[in-house]
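We modelled the chain as a single entity of 116 amino acids. Its sequence is:
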Amino acid sequence: MIEIDGRKKPGPRYLVKIDGREVWLTGTSFRIFVIFAHARWHKPCPLAWVHKSDLSIYAIRYIHRLRGELDNPDLIENSGNKDGYYRLTRGDVRCNNETLKNHEDHDVRKLFAEVA
């Protein structure tokens, strides 16, 4: 189970839980992780691929950093044909909607305003 809590600690870092293990992500990594998770539960496409251009012009660097922070690089996969698509490999995602719809990051708030 992947749980996106969104609580903040100094640094700043934001909390996600992967199979009960707490992982504190930097702001950019957290935002990208939330975008991947959002694609899993909210997109009409069941495959939930996200193109790197939807993330940032520095998406490859940020995805690499996110994989390192997660300490589980297999949790994020690419499409394998060098076309720039990425996704979470697991769909068992739960979110703390109350924390996330009031999150300080505009992109995160926007995604959860759509869900609410």
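As a brief sanity check on the tokenised model: The chain has a mean pLDDT of 87. Residues 1 and 19 are 5 Å apart (CA to CA).
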